[in-house]
Predict the 3D structure of the following.
Amino acid sequence: MNSPGLLELVVIIFLLSTFLGPEKIKESARAIGKAYREFRGYSNLTPLGKNKITDKENIRSSAEKLGINTAGMNSKEIKTAIINELSNE
């Protein structure tokens, strides 16, 4: 039982309010809330491997941006065409 109990938390809050004052406590609570929201925002990002855009789609769109016609090509052929196009530039 290493966690603080209710009585300890009440004493800590009382001492903080005595020494810091209510304004500092409000500012601290806002800062903690903002940090918590930011943390939760990062934890809600899509995990690796579950991207909405697959690697195949990324490769195909990159090739099309370079002006490569990808119709009828597999991923390996598209990668080779991208490398050839970039080496020519």
